[in-house]
From TrEMBL:
<dbReference type="InterPro" id="IPR006091">
    <property type="entry name" value="Acyl-CoA_Oxase/DH_mid-dom"/>
</dbReference>
<dbReference type="GO" id="GO:0033540">
    <property type="term" value="P:fatty acid beta-oxidation using acyl-CoA oxidase"/>
</dbReference>
<keyword id="KW-0576">Peroxisome</keyword>
<comment type="pathway">
    <text>Lipid metabolism; peroxisomal fatty acid beta-oxidation.</text>
</comment>
<dbReference type="InterPro" id="IPR002655">
    <property type="entry name" value="Acyl-CoA_oxidase_C"/>
</dbReference>
<dbReference type="Pfam" id="PF01756">
    <property type="entry name" value="ACOX"/>
</dbReference>
<dbReference type="InterPro" id="IPR012258">
    <property type="entry name" value="Acyl-CoA_oxidase"/>
</dbReference>
<dbReference type="GO" id="GO:0003997">
    <property type="term" value="F:acyl-CoA oxidase activity"/>
</dbReference>
<keyword id="KW-0276">Fatty acid metabolism</keyword>
<dbReference type="InterPro" id="IPR037069">
    <property type="entry name" value="AcylCoA_DH/ox_N_sf"/>
</dbReference>
<comment type="similarity">
    <text>Belongs to the acyl-CoA oxidase family.</text>
</comment>
<keyword id="KW-0560">Oxidoreductase</keyword>
<feature type="binding site">
    <location>
        <position position="63"/>
    </location>
    <ligand>
        <name>FAD</name>
    </ligand>
</feature>
<dbReference type="InterPro" id="IPR055060">
    <property type="entry name" value="ACOX_C_alpha1"/>
</dbReference>
<feature type="domain" description="Acyl-CoA oxidase C-alpha1">
    <location>
        <begin position="199"/>
        <end position="360"/>
    </location>
</feature>
<dbReference type="GO" id="GO:0005504">
    <property type="term" value="F:fatty acid binding"/>
</dbReference>
<dbReference type="Pfam" id="PF14749">
    <property type="entry name" value="Acyl-CoA_ox_N"/>
</dbReference>
Amino acid sequence: MLPHCSALLGGLLGTGILKQGNPLTVHYVMFLPAILGHGTPEQQAEWFGRAWNCEIIGTYAQTELGHGTFLRGLETTATYDERTKEFVLHSPTLTAYKWWPGGLAQTANYCVVMAQLFSKGQCHGIQPFIVQLRDEESHVPMKGITIGDIGNKLGMNGVNNGFLGFDHVRIPRKNMLMKNAKLLEDGTFVKPPSQALTYGTMMFVRVVICRDMAAYLSKAVTIAVRYSAVRRQSHINPDQPEVQVIDHLTQQYKLFPALAKSIIFKLTSDNLWDMYNQVTSELDKGDLERLPELHAIACCLKAITTADAAAGVELCRMACGGHGYMTCSNFYGTYGMVTAACTYEGENTVLLLQTARYLMKAWQQAQRGQELVPTVQYLARFLSSKNRRMDWDDSIGGIVRALQTVAAGKLRLAAEHIEQRQKRGATLEEATNQTSIELARTADAHCRAFLVQSGCEMIEKGCATASPELAKVLRTIYHLYAYDEALKSLGDLLRFTTISESDINRLQAKLEDALTELRPNAVGIVDSFDLPDDVLGSPLGAYDGNVYERLYEEAKKSPLNQEPVNQSFHMYLKPFMKSSL
């Protein structure tokens, strides 16, 4: 396969062609980046070209049957044999079998395997190894390798997720990817500059996931908005005809915040992508200063964008009534793709707790008066404020500061509660676990403040070169997003700011005004996403608006409609009706 084919089968276009997922996705999104991120120049020269040209197909095996997010608990071992200069990969238990890698069951013939490295009788933690899984000509599994498909899932059933077991499989020493950690010929282990470098591939994938969530949400919103412009239901004024469903304010409230989110998520993912490239460039120069910041923001953004996208797709489905429940509407397929992302590449709660761990360190730095990186600089402002409850201001800048104050206030309380629990006899680890609900909510608040701030900055940057008319629409989009996030955080705003009932009423009025302002442009905005009908894959969202004709054509395709009387009538129903039960 040529590189341009990867673009053809990737992203939203790929979902239009391969509706149940692409078995080569992990090859491009994880296998190739793993070689670049973990391989030496010599290893990249050996493997990357062949993989890029698809002379070999790879996958990435980390998760096991018995362990997922807790990487230190992985059981697969790679033991170095000094005599033969080889690693022996082994799955000591059933729970050590690799489980879930995309494309593993039938597509891939190579794999980057994450395993516990042992040399000289010591364990050196998780390291990456390239392993040949199948013969390049016959595709038969290599000796000592057990491989297969894990079975059907809620979605993505075209990806052939697999399981993988090793029975003392030998690979040469050069197959350990040694850009970061190294193992010398005599078995001496050389630590990487930072253990976080081992997880660079996962950070890359989380950046990609944020972009994917924006794309999938835009797909669902396009279907729902177009359908809502065609569907008519109920009267607003009794003496007027039925109105388009999209004219009902409740329908606008279901769809337009999701529309705004799809745009904010896309812009923030672009921001995160720039940050990733900058940090990666700094890493190549040996500068690790901003790596923890990137890790923390990528973790929480992955958690929030996947959770919100999954909820948004489901809300769009329900906004389309009974027709949205049809498989052909494609909400089912889209939801299956999106909800999977809430779990793979880091379960969302665990990722929020990883961000919270970083925030706790940043809080301690702020208390000591140390310089803070950009994403947490608001902590210094919070600590310097004499009033712990911020004066409410419903401007966009005021909402950003208020959400940052909520995050900082929650972080302060979490830190205090951990300290109190330690004083009562708990260890630091026990106290952290007992405070974990607060910590996860703190990371959630931190991320939402970042999204509002980042979205505002990115849209203002776009407005600088846009026409006045377009700039007005763009600003309405992020105003709506900010108002919606603030109203959904009312409990926290009441705790940490001076917001009053009249302030809340005014904020609600602003949100409703933003909905009304977006109404005339809603169809034009989703049309600007430029998603072809084949990508949407839904009669409800077709560009021509012929919803009912297309639904009827889809219904006629049912196998049950291919004969006037189904054979089940003669076999089962007629005998039942004629029986004397």
